[in-house]
Specification:
heterotrimer, A mainly alpha (about 475), B mainly alpha (about 600), C mainly alpha (about 110), B: about 600 residues, mainly alpha, 25 helices, 7 strands, C: about 110 residues, 3 helices, elongated
């Protein structure tokens, strides 16, 4: 099984779509479905971690793709998220079919690549397609802002990569990792490249204070671009974080603390900001910034399994939440929470899907979010960290407050101080909500299933070899 | 193995009936509501029959349950409350926007409580604990306020996440989730015991509504649907007592903190908990006196009563724990009955504001009687169950020499006369408002549960030993000294109490009073608006209603007292302000500002990294 | 030496990003930053007295001293990407100019 097809197929689709403009949607759909199917097949047939050389150059000299259980999770996540978003927002694709296909190729590339420069190229390609996609929101000023910052960020990333190349004479991540182990480069010498790579990635991963572009771009985004940036892009970039932290980020204590401070500050401040916001999409975008902070903090502490679980939970639940919020905003013209009282009274299935996703996000038991949170807290305890679990749990109180505020308002019409009644119900009209509802419900069922199954034996789950093997298989071939 | 009733069967049965209630309500609202009546009754019978199999463990798929003495006791209280309240659901179906969801969540909340009381391990406890939270969190906004639900969730989340921290801390330390096992191990390690005591204790305090976590009670209880307020106050709040019991007595705290500074017969940690209990007695009492809304008043009285419960549990001697258990039971019965009486009044009149009511004794005499019995019990006057528990608690406080705490408790008891009398006089006594001339008495189906609850309150006030013998067994089952009895007498530390004798004396007194009342000439009935005004026309007779500003002179004494809700609001305002600042400062649409931050952050990271 | 110069060039670019409000000037600053970066990368591969890494009839031995070709390949790619982004940025700027009638970011209405 060659994972390169996951990148090549969408690229080919993009070229076909350029030539035959009329069938671009069909081609895009076929490729999206094909990618999901192919990644599932790869996951099923997966035997062990391998490096796949591209163009006949054996690694570390040529570009190579890494196929291990870590990147498998990544491609499953990215492709399935992409497919679902496309399914829910088919109507919005319009003339952006080519760009979407390119972005799919780039996202798969980001997750799969084992070469640093190649990573830079894929990030740039993904970013350029994101700039073009965000023009859909008709907020060109913000798109321009995003473009400037994104380009600066990839410049910083490239600088870091160049410094690493200068130090090790290699661009292959695994090669650099092994050279690091042999040569015993001091942690002090690694500060410069690590900080530049971290900064470059943080702009895309939306960490505070790097990701300043995100509010303007996502605040008014439609149900295609918004979910894609919040889920697919975030997942791909965060997985890069994980791969780099576990392989080539040899950090001094000072640097580790400094980077953890950035990540934890992002978690706390972004939750505070989400709490202060009154619009659905703004709340959700700050919530995903916070989750990014948490994921990075876990990665920095070497807790890969927990980080992946939190990431998956965030991607899955945000996919539903953001898509539904953007859908509601597109059709009703507002996403102000107070103006959407009782919208779920009419669209119950939509509401149930939204509610399950929201409850998973805040980590209530019986939903997948609890499994992720339990794993995060537990593994932090195991690593002897007593304060970070407390911070995580405290901010999830804040998170819970704003999520519950949304849920109670969206389910119940009527003024504060009065019993909700059918008469006070505002009329809402959503177009083509059936498809969206079904997707939301199916994801909801999966979230509940994935929330109940692991706690069937939580003790074994917390210390299971099945999950820790993900950590072990990373980086080592 | 044939089908035998076990905890697993009950839980599954309740879950199925929750789904069934949802489906049936969709078809026919009344049928669905009847499911919520039947299911708790069947479960009540089933749990009652399990009395003999205490100590058995059950497994349901992946969950493990263990029926303990105290788990059984708490479950019985909870089922009793749910079963009685559910009759009211039938009448409320028409008034709800989401009746099917209400019925389902109602039964899920019940499942959550039973599961939490019988869980064998902490994970099960936490899962069911959160199930209580989210099922009730969705029910509360069906009432008058959406905000109330958010406040409720905020406090609950604070509690349950504190508990989660404790659970994982203990798991990390002892490698087990088994409640009994872990708590026994924790008792040998002072640090672990302290973490468990504080984290799980906070969870319990939040649920009970002990100061400073009491603010959700008036909001949630006061604004929840009228049928759900009795559940919250009589039922779900008592789950907090369960959590406190676990860490105070099951652990047990007196062994774990034996090396700590001892103060008034308890460790300093326990004493701090007791002080919080004392403060909530005072705060709850004072706030209850102030309320105009009938439901909020009872909610604040629940805060005060939560104080007694936590004091009793934290003192950890035989009499105090027994008293706390009796108080949990007595207060569950009384507050459920009181809230049901409110619900009946609200059902007939459509309001719970005392200044809009009056004279309902003429229209709803039985409801009046139910309310009277409930408040007598809450105020701790014989011959009601509430008296027994307070007597035991006072005995223990005095015995330990806790002067301040006892003062607070006595203050609360006296204060409770004030606040329970206010609704009595404002709602039931006095003159009937013209609006309510046509009010009918409560429907029969509503009367059944109210009479059951009142009957039990009186019964256990006269024969408390029925309950106390069970309590005594609970105490011996967790390895502490049990209560002592002598026939109908309860043996206290400095005296004993014979409730039956008291009742006889009380009965004689009552008969004498009745005779005097009957011999006395009848009073003349006056209309509400029949007010003497010296030739002035009255535009706002409501302001002259005597229940308006009932305790104004007394309230004036503490009107400048600090308002706890302001503290929380200030914290949240700060959070919001920081959020606004972050959004303004870091998330600018101007590239140069973000570039500036990127440069600053990188310089800081490079500096921090090279240190 | 050339490395310090290239870093100085990058800093000039960043200074431009920090100080300019005109879209065109921002794009120019970005390009200066990128040029500095590209020069830096090329300078990594520099070997004193090294030959161009192309096999010719004169230079066909691997024993000869060559310049590192990889950074040059990287820079080529980076330049291409940079040009693409510049084009996109200019298109955006043009479009914004059409709606707002100005290239100054601060003079545009809306948030």
């Amino acid at each position: 099984m060659n994972p390169a097809l996951l990148i090549a197929a969408p690229l080919l689709a993009a070229f076909i779509a350029v030539i035959f403009k009329k069938i671009d949607k069909v081609v895009l759909g076929v490729v999206a479905v094909g990618n999901i199917a192919y990644s599932i097949v790869m996951a099923v047939l997966f035997t062990g971690a391998t490096q796949i050389a591209i163009g006949g150059f054996a690694p570390p000299f040529g570009i190579s793709l890494v196929l291990d259980s870590y990147s498998l999770i990544g491609i499953l996540l990215v492709n399935v998220a992409f497919g679902l978003i496309l399914l829910m927002g088919t109507k919005l694709v319009g003339r952006y079919g080519i760009v979407l296909a390119v972005s799919l190729a780039a996202l798969n590339g980001i997750v799969l690549t084992g070469d640093l420069f190649n990573l830079f190229v894929f990030i740039e390609v993904a970013a350029i397609s994101a700039y073009i996609m965000t023009t859909m929101n008709k907020q060109l000023k913000h798109t321009f802002n995003y473009l400037i910052l994104g380009t600066l960020a990839s410049g910083l990333l490239l600088f870091g990569i160049a410094v690493l190349y200068n130090m090790f004479g290699s661009l292959n991540i695994i090669d650099i990792a092994s050279k690091l182990a042999i040569s015993g480069v001091s942690a002090g010498a690694m500060v410069l490249p690590i900080v530049f790579i971290f900064a470059g990635l943080s702009v895309e991963a939306k960490l505070i204070p790097f990701g300043g572009w995100v509010r303007g771009v996502l605040k008014k985004s439609n149900s295609l671009v918004g979910p894609l940036l919040v889920t697919g892009y975030a997942a791909a970039i965060l997985l890069v974080f994980g791969r780099l932290t576990s392989t080539i980020f040899i950090m001094s204590d000072g640097l580790k603390i400094a980077l953890t401070v950035v990540a934890v500050a992002t978690l706390v401040l972004a939750e505070f900001t989400a709490f202060s916001k009154k619009n659905l999409r703004e709340v959700l975008l700050f919530s995903s910034i916070a989750q990014s902070g948490l994921v990075v903090a876990l990665f920095l502490n070497g807790l890969t399994v927990a980080a992946i679980l939190v990431l998956v939970n965030n991607v899955v639940s945000k996919l539903v939440l953001f898509a539904l919020s953007a859908k509601i905003a597109d059709d009703t013209g507002t996403d102000k929470i107070s103006e959407l009282k009782g919208v779920f009274t009419k669209y119950r299935v939509l509401g149930v899907g939204f509610t399950i996703a929201a409850m998973s996000l805040i980590g209530l038991p019986m939903f997948f979010g609890f499994v992720a949170k339990a794993q995060a807290v537990m593994s932090l305890f195991e690593s002897g960290n007593l304060w970070l679990p407390a911070v995580i749990l405290l901010v999830s109180v804040i998170e819970g407050i704003y999520i519950i505020r949304i849920l109670t308002t969206l389910w119940n019409s009527g003024k504060e101080g009065q019993v909700p009644s059918k008469d006070a119900q505002k009329e809402y009209k959503l177009n083509g909500f059936v498809k969206v509802s079904i997707v939301a419900l199916v994801i909801g069922v999966l979230i509940v299933a994935a929330g109940i199954l692991p706690i069937t034996n939580i003790k074994e789950f917390l210390s299971s070899d099945f999950l820790s093997f993900i950590t072990r298989s990373m980086g080592g071939v | 193995m044939g089908i035998s009733i076990g905890v697993g069967t009950i839980i599954v049965g309740l879950l199925i009936s929750a789904v069934l209630a949802y489906v049936l309500t969709k078809i026919n609202k009344t049928t669905g509501a009847w499911v919520t009546v039947l299911a708790p009754f069947l479960a009540l019978a089933a749990v009652f029959l399990l009395r003999d199999s205490i100590g058995t463990t059950y497994s349901l798929f992946f969950l493990e349950f263990e029926l303990t003495e105290y788990g059984w006791f708490f479950s019985m209280i909870m089922l009793l409350v749910f079963a009685c309240v559910s009759f009211f659901n039938v009448y409320w179906m028409k008034k709800m926007v989401h009746p099917a969801a209400y019925n389902m969540l109602y039964l899920l909340a019940l499942t959550g409580t039973l599961g939490a009381f019988m869980a064998k391990d902490f994970i099960g406890l936490f899962i069911f604990w959160e199930m209580i939270v989210w099922s009730s969190m969705f029910i509360i906004p069906f009432g008058k306020s959406r905000k109330a639900s958010v406040v409720y969730y905020a406090f609950s989340a604070l509690g349950s996440l504190a508990m989660l921290y404790g659970i994982f801390y203990l798991y990390n330390a002892f490698g087990s989730f088994n409640i009994q096992e872990v708590l026994k191990l924790a008792a040998t390690d002072t640090t672990a015991a302290l973490v468990a005591f504080i984290t799980i204790g906070i969870a319990g305090m939040v649920k009970l509504g002990v100061f400073p976590f009491h603010l959700w009670l008036p909001r949630a209880h006061g604004n929840a649907p009228d049928t759900f307020s009795p559940i919250l106050s009589g039922g779900l709040v008592k789950a907090g007592g369960f959590a406190v019991f676990l860490i105070a007595v099951v652990m047990p705290s007196y062994e774990a903190f034996a090396t700590q500074l001892q103060f008034m017969g308890v460790s300093i940690t326990s004493y701090i908990f007791i002080l919080f209990g004392a403060v909530s007695i005072v705060v709850g009492t004072l706030m209850a006196i102030k309320q105009d809304d009938f439901k909020k008043l009872i909610a604040y009285s629940s805060v005060a009563n939560a104080g007694y419960i936590i004091i009793g549990l934290a003192m950890t001697d035989a009499l105090s724990v027994g008293g706390a258990f009796m108080h949990i039971f007595a207060h569950a019965l009384a507050s459920a009955a009181a809230f049901l009486a409110v619900a009946a009044v609200s059902h007939r009149t459509g309001t719970t504001k005392m200044s809009e009511l009056g004279g309902l004794i003429h229209r709803m005499p039985l409801t009046y009687l139910v309310y009277l019995i409930a408040i007598i019990s809450m105020a701790g006057i014989p011959p009601m169950a509430g008296f027994i528990s307070k007597w035991m608690l006072f005995q223990s406080m005095i015995d330990n020499g806790m002067v301040f705490v006892a003062t607070a408790a006595f203050f609360g008891s006296i204060g409770s006369f004030l606040y329970v009398f206010r609704p009595l006089s404002a709602v039931f006594l006095g003159q009937l408002s013209p609006k309510h001339y046509k009010v009918k008495k409560a429907p029969v189906l509503m009367m059944i549960p109210m009479i059951i609850l009142s009957g039990l309150t009186v019964l256990f006030g006269i024969f408390p030993n029925i309950v106390l013998r069970i309590v005594s067994r609970i105490q011996t089952s967790v390895g502490m000294e049990g209560l002592q009895f002598d026939g109908t007498k309860i043996i206290g530390s400095n005296g004993s109490l014979d409730p039956t004798l008291i009742v006889v004396i009380f009965g004689i007194g009552f008969m004498i009073a009745l005779v005097i009342f009957l011999l006395h000439p009848k009073s003349r009935k006056v209309e509400l608006m029949d007010t003497y005004t010296a030739s002035e026309f009255i535009y706002t007779p409501e302001l002259l209603h005597y229940s308006h500003s009932f305790y104004a002179p007394f309230e004036r004494l503490y009107k400048n007292a600090p308002d706890t809700s302001k503290w929380y609001k200030a914290i949240l305002k700060k959070v919001s302000e920081i959020g606004g600042f972050v959004s303004y400062a870091f998330f600018s649409s101007k590239p140069r500002i973000v570039v500036f931050w990127i440069v600053i952050a990188m310089v800081a990271l490079l500096w921090g990294g090279s240190v | 030496m050339i490395q310090y110069l290239s870093i100085a060039l990058m800093l000039v670019g960043i200074y431009g990003l920090l100080s300019q409000r005109n879209m065109i000037k921002l794009i120019v600053s970005l390009n200066i930053f990128e040029i500095g970066l590209n020069i830096f990368i090329v300078s990594i591969g520099f070997v004193k007295d090294g030959l161009a890494p192309i096999l010719t009839s004169n230079h066909n031995s691997s024993a000869l001293l060559y310049v590192d070709p990889l950074p040059q390949a990287m820079v080529l790619t980076a330049i291409v990407i940079g040009v693409g982004i510049t084009a996109l940025a200019l298109a955006l700027a043009r479009k914004l100019y059409k709606t707002h009638g100005t290239y100054e970011l601060d003079e545009m209405e809306g948030e």
